[in-house]
Amino acid sequence: MNSIVSFLLQILLTIVLTSLIVVYIRPHLRKVLTDLCGTEERAQFWTVFSNVLLIGLPAMLALTYKPEAATMEEAFFEVAGRLSGTLAGFLFALVCVGIVVSFFALVAPRTPKAEAK
Q1: Is the CB of residue 28 less than 8 Å from the CB of residue 101?
Q2: Which domain holds residue 52?
Q3: Contact, 7 vs 65, CB < 8 A?
Q4: Contact 57, 89 (CB under 8 A)
Q5: In terms of CB atoms within 10 Å, which of 3, 43, 101, 112 comes out highest?
Q6: What are the pLDDT digits (tens) for 92-108?
Q7: Domain count of the chain?
C-alpha cells in the first residue's frame, strides 16, 4: 500500500468514526448543556465547542502518523494500531468534556420545581 494512501486512509477513518460518535451523543449533550447554560444560544456554543474538541483532538493525533509499512499486511495493522491511538485520544477528550459538564452540573444553581401533590 502506498504511504500516502495509508496516511489518508488513517485520517479519513479517524474523522469518520469520531464524527459518527459525536452525531450519536450530540442530542444528549445538547439537552444537558441547555439545562446547565439556561439559554439555547449558550448551549449551542458549548455543543459546537465540544464537537470541535472531540473531532479535532483525534484528527490532530492522526496527522502525526508516518507510515513505515513495506507490505499491505503491515500497513493494515499499522493503520489499525494508529486508529486505536486516535480513538484513545477521542476518549480522553470525551472524559474531559464529561468532567467539565459534571462539575458544572454539580455547582450550577437550580430553580426549585413545583412539588407534585
Answers
A1: no
A2: 3-107
A3: yes
A4: yes
A5: 43
A6: 999 998 898 888 878 76
A7: 1
Q: Are 44 and 81 in contact (CB under 8 A)?
A: no
How big is the chain by its Cα radius of gyration, in Å?
19
C-alpha cell at 110: 437550580
Largest distance between two CA atoms of the chain: 72
Residue 29 lies in a domain: yes
The model carries a pTM of 0.77
Burial 35-55 (b: 16+ CB within 10 A, else e): ebbeeeeebeebbeebbebbb
> How many degrees, rounded to 5, is the angle at CA 15 between CA 13 and CA 19?
120
* pLDDT band at residue 1 under the 50/70/90 scheme: low
